[in-house]
Amino acid sequence: MMDTKRRNFLKSAAMAAAGSMVAGNMSLPVVQADQGVSDLPDGDGLSWNKAPCRFCGTGCHVQVGVEDGRVVAIAGDKAADVNKGLLCVKGYHVGGILYGKDRLTQPLLRKDGRLTEIEWDEAIEIIAKRIFDSPETFAFYGSGQWTIPEGYAAQKFMKGGLSNNHIDPNARLCMASAVTGFLATYGVDEPAGCYQDLDECDVLILWGNNPAEMHPVLFSRVTDRRSRGETVRIIDIGTRRTRTTDAANDYLEMKPHGDVAISLGIMHLLIENDNYDKSFVEKHCNFRGDEADTPTLSGEPISEDEFRKRIAKYTPERVEELSGVPADEIRMLADLFADRDIRITSLWCMGMNQHTMGTAINSLVHGVHLLSGHFGRPGDAPTSLTGQPSACGTVREVGTLSHALPGGRVIANPEHREQCEGFWNVRDGSINEVPGYHTVEMFERFTKPTAEGGDITTMLVQVTNPGQTLPNLNALFNDKKGLEDKFLIVSDVYPTATTALADLILPAAMWVEKNGMFGNSERRTQQWFKMVDPPGEARDDCWMTIAIARKLFEMGHEGMKDKDGDFIFAVKDDDGQEIPIWEFDRYYDTNVDKHLFEEYRLFTRMKHKNLAPYEEYVKARGLRWPVVEQEDGSWRETRFRFSGFDDPFVEEGQEFDFYHSTSNDGRAQIWFHEYQPPPEVPDDEYPMWLCTGRVLEHWHTGTMTRRLAPLNRAMPTAYVEMHLEDAKAANIRQGEVVTIESRRGVCDLPVWIDGRGRPPRGTVFVPFFDESKLINNVTLEAYDPFSKQPDYKKCAVRVVKKSAAKVSS
Amino acid sequence: MPISGLVVTFQSSVAEHADSIDQIADLPEVEVGESAGSKLAIVVDSATKRRDQEIWNAVYQLPGVIDLAVAMVAFDEDAETKP
Q: Where are the alpha helices (DSSP H) in A504-649?
């Protein structure tokens, strides 16, 4: 309990924080770390420091109030350009996630079916021995919740040390199609624009996106503009009504995969009406299409005439048939894109990425913007968002994907491998030339008996929960026979659906219990310092990787030595003496994050993703790459890539330059892809569409937010959203528990009719946050051929009253 | 026993929402602060997290309120274990 004096002190701090946001200038530049906290009074042992929020990819900054070694207060960070002091309901509770009563605090080894506490030395030895005995059958699975240094260490350990490319993140499940869309279009990943586009657009088009719930602080930038009297037209293109729809001027309800047809329809009309931006296209774009035989991410060049020919059939009427969106609405969209006097921003996230045509629809939406010239001016941008705090920083930039290397380099390119081996100072040929297994394949191999070709036998999972998030869990994760030789190691902060099947559980430190760096959705790299100790024996994930590597080094694994015979993660003090960072009580003798980051930074210059020195990030609330040193020694970030007015790599006098063009001519690619139907569609047996997703109160699998009482009370259980008429037809009542069945599995859920989200007839929606109701037992593992990202947004199911269900989950 | 500093955003100027502001001010746990444009600062000092959430929901549902954002929160209770 707080005493009255302290309570009054905190109340005055809370009023100061809220009052300053009401009265203050909401457009703040990046400033020094010690500014912006001046109105949050220190006192009574309370101190404040900055950190990015732990949850989504928006990258809001918070001020963390620490007292007596414990986080006691969270404030929005006014000095942060991303959120300008605002926080959403999850950010408000981010401090509480450290203090769930069931934190994992000791390594646990499963012996005879029971979990037994062991010491760290034993745990590290067990892991190292399994890897030493069979390094090629080891896989490392992480996520966009890895900090940048954690991901970089894992990447170097696997690809440089073990010559093993079987490392992949759960970001494969959420934004891999955005990556391939950017690569196919611009030859380089990540959005060209930034959040300023939301402040300056006249029209915001949301493609299967629900930012009101998933990225609420970003969405509030737009709704705030309206409250200030500005006009912003919001167009929501979706398969169900959401809270975002409530704020939209137009709601265009589409059939699953309708987005592909809609984008083709817009481009058809721009061409047909001859009102595309000829000057922009002539100067800055090429046309591209799939190869006839075996389509690749590179495709093949096609002429403008060929593009016109192929797209001619996507008339508004044909698009209406395919998408369900009325032809007049397609014309309305095309007319907006034809208007060069307005600025249009497109936003998307999982709806376009979790899609078996994910790469195609990403490329097509980029193409709509390029063809119409709505690109590169503030407010004119095609922009994808991410769901995890460092999906961009750790996965896309560090390259913790099975085919990638740091800094936009790829395994398949011998020159890239050679550069990477040079930076790491490892022996020539250390990096295996064959890309590793992507997520779905990795888990297929791990959950298949070794004798049947299941050639992954040991897997280390850090900072993610595949036991809940993989599609078709019955095939890819759930307990099976014949896997006795397999060994699952899971590092996490709480017990999860994944730790439930683990052979060895490692207790992890989280968020401000360790140093860290994240990279958010607008290319902003952010840094924070450790502020409190983790509980019990919980330790940093980065330390775990280094400790395993060191044990392998001591066991004589040649890959853990660089060309000079030194440990690949060696850190030396000013006297040239090695600091034993593999011993946890010495890990913070130096800033390991800083050492790893400065090494990683060398890679970032290879593809114009330049990062500043570590200390620059200590001072700032993040900087958007490329960050380039100025003549006066300061470091300048970039808001708008490829645009001559802002991007330092565009030649003086050029309006635009796509300097990583796949056609090597400074041009972006406008793609044509044929519409294809979804991989599974409703039929007589399974007559309804299932779409899965997230809710405002819970972050992804709920392992953190479900431990926060207010959030859990607000949203205590998963449910199935159903249309009233569908419910009536099946004699299903509000709140009744039904069984959702697919060809792959079942899940029992209470029905919510006309609830927060309102699906159309023939569609149901289920959130995936609830580990007691695993909807991924039902979903489909079909994936995009290029990004390998599964489609969680559409498969065929039936809804069965419990009394009539054939199988009970 | 959370204490939170919140920013209430109305769909138009604060002055046009006197009834809603009166209802906020009537909540014993709420202290109303300064306002500007469509935004109003409030502090909520509640006895339990449940009450904090109730107040949050009540304010959010008042006529004219379009957004409720957090500026700061202080807490001294443990999070709960898995529900």
A: 541-555, 592-604, 614-619
Which of A384, A415, A433 lies at the terminal end of a domain, its last residue? A384
Contact flag B78-A224 (C-beta cutoff 8 Å)? no
Same domain, A236 and A170: no
State the amino acid at position A39 in one-letter form.
Answer: D
Residue A634 within any structural domain of the chain: no
Residues of chain A with pLDDT under 50: 25-38, 805-809
Which residues of A define the annotated binding site?
Answer: 53, 56, 60, 88, 90, 145, 170, 174, 350, 354, 465, 491-492, 514, 541, 692-701, 768, 776, 793
Residues A705 and A556 in one domain: no
Alpha helices in A176-234 (DSSP H): 176-186, 196-200, 211-214, 216-227
Tokens of A718: 């998963």
Q: Evaluate if pTM is beyond 0.90.
A: yes
A-proximal residues of B, 27-46, CB under 8 Å? 31, 33-43, 45
Check whether the bond before A435 is cis (ω within 30° of 0): no
CATH number for A268: 3.40.228.10
Answer with the residue of higher pLDDT: B73 or A725.
A725
Of A23, A102, A714, the CB nearest to B81: A102
At residue B80 the predicted structure's pLDDT band, cuts being 50, 70 and 90, is low
Structure ipTM: 0.92
Residues A471, A440: contact at Cβ < 8 Å? yes
Residue of B45, B46, B75 for testing the chain A interface, max A β-carbons within 10 Å = B75
For residues A154 and A31, membership in a common domain is answered with no
**Residue A693 belongs to domain with CATH number:** 2.40.40.20
pLDDT at B51: 86
Whether residue A734 lies in the annotated active site: no
- Final residue before a domain boundary, out of A73, A99, A125: A99
Q: Count residue pairs from A and B with Cβ separation < 8 A.
A: 166
> What is the per-residue DSSP string for A1-36?
---HHHHHHHHHHHHHHHHHHHHS-S------TTSS
Q: How far is B4 from chain A (nearest CA, A)?
A: 6
- What CATH topology corresponds to B3-74? Alpha-Beta Plaits (3.30.70)
A 10 A CB-CB count for A123 gives: 23
A183 and A168 share one domain:
no
Q: Please state, in angstroms and rounded to a whole number, the distance separating the CA atoms of residues A264 and A792.
A: 23
DSSP A579: P
Element (H, E) at A777: none
- Say what the pLDDT of residue A712 is: 84
User: Are residues A221 and A267 located together in one domain of the fold?
Assistant: yes
**Rama region for A541: left / alpha / beta (φ>0; ψ in -120 to 50; rest):** alpha
User: If you count DSSP H runs as helices and E runs as strands, how many of each does chain B have, helices first?
Assistant: 2, 4
Domain count, chain A: 4
CATH code for position A569: 3.40.50.740
Q: Are residue A704 and residue A783 in the same domain, yes or no?
A: yes
- With beta carbons less than 8 A apart as the criterion, state whether A153 and A396 touch: no
Query: Which residues span the domain enclosing A756?
Result: 688-804
Residue A73 contacts by C-beta under 8 Å, 6 or more apart in sequence? A10, A13, A46, A64, A65, A95, B72, B73, B74, B75
Asked if the Cβ–Cβ distance from B50 to A713 is below 8 Å, we say yes
A630: region left, alpha or beta (phi > 0 left; psi from -120 to 50 alpha): beta
Same domain as A559, residue A439: yes
Residues A428 and A547 in one domain: yes
Sign for the CA dihedral angle at A689, A695, A698, A700 comes to positive
Q: Classify residue A564: in a domain, yes or no.
A: yes
d(CA A402, CA A155): 9
Domain positions in chain B are 3-74
CB A109 within 8 A of CB A91: no
A446 three-class SS = helix
CB A771 within 8 A of CB A496: yes
